Amino acid sequence: PSPLGRNFYYITILRDPVSRYLSEWRHVQRGATWKASLHVCDGRSPTTEELPSCYTGDDWSGCSLQEFMDCPYNLANNRQVRMLSDLSLVGCYNLSVMPEEQRNKVLLDSAKENLKRMAFFGLTEFQRKTQYLFEKTFNMNFISPFTQYNSTRASSVEIDEQTQQRIEALNFLDMELYDYAKDLFLQRYQYMRQKEHQEARRKRQEQRKILRARQART
């Protein structure tokens, strides 16, 4: 609870890592930048040596997918794990603090733990289930049902098997996190459905008891 007596809940929506990566590439290709993001960690922003830029000039507009994949400092790589984890555990953006393999494990474990502790998270590939879980978690209803859009900017990009594998390799932490998230999400969904069915059954039993009692009195 905050000093004002309000409760704040952390929520997030995860997306299939390959689709998310392609979507970010298309976004960057059209001129999007994150220059306003300070990437503050442990009270400071990373130095240019810790986080070099992938491009010179004002933006990276017009970059090819190959160029996007080739930049080793591209923050699109494993973005979901990085944004869900506690970067201070690995020395923020200073890659010399610990070996890469250890760093990856700490980041992934941290992202999984933080995701598990969130009040709610959804998956873009399960819009209706995401809506159901949100409504049951926070005891509220949306005016209209969520729509499943399978036609997106990412889906319009045709890539070959080799490129698919390259993107998966660049986002291997996100791939593992997403598998974990999907399993946890479906577990929570099934739990909520069972809970709803049990509650409905209990109400029906109570109504039958009330009806039998009325019939007995008459």
Q: Can you give me a brief rundown of this structure?
A:
The protein has one domain. Helices cover 51% and strands 4% of the residues. The chain has helices at residues 17-29, 65-70, 79-84, 100-117, 127-138, 161-170, 172-217, and strands at residues 11-14, 120-123.
Give the SSE layout.
Layout: E1 11-14, H1 17-29, H2 65-70, H3 79-84, H4 100-117, E2 120-123, H5 127-138, H6 161-170, H7 172-217
Parallel strand pairs: 1-2
Model description:
This protein has 218 residues and is mainly alpha-helical. The chain has one domain (11-188). 51% of the residues lie in helices and 4% in strands. The chain is built from seven helices and two strands. The chain has helices at residues 17-29, 65-70, 79-84, 100-117, 127-138, 161-170, 172-217, and strands spanning 11-14, 120-123. A two-stranded parallel ribbon has the order 1-2. Helix 4 runs parallel beside helix 7 (172-217). It is elongated and about 85 Å long. It starts with 10 loop residues before the first strand and ends with a helix. The mean pLDDT is 93.
What would the average pLDDT be, to the nearest integer?
A: 93
Number of strands: 2
Shape: elongated
Largest beta-sheet details:
2 strands, parallel
Query: Strand order within the widest sheet?
Result: 1-2
Oligomeric state of the chains present here:
single chain
* Tally of discrete structural domains: 1
Our estimate of the beta-strand percent is under 5%
Roughly how much helix do the residues carry, as a percent range? 40-55%
What structural class is derived from the secondary structure elements? mainly alpha
- The Cα radius of gyration reads 23 Å
| Span of the ends, CA to CA | 53 Å
**Which regions contain 5 or more consecutive residues with pLDDT less than 50?**
none
Q: What is the string of helix and strand elements?
A: EHHHHEHHH
Number of helices: 7
Catalytic activity: alpha-D-glucosaminyl-[heparan sulfate](n) + 3'-phosphoadenylyl sulfate = 6-sulfo-alpha-D-glucosaminyl-[heparan sulfate](n) + adenosine 3',5'-bisphosphate + H(+)
Family: Belongs to the sulfotransferase 6 family.
EC number: 2.8.2.-
Subcellular location: Membrane
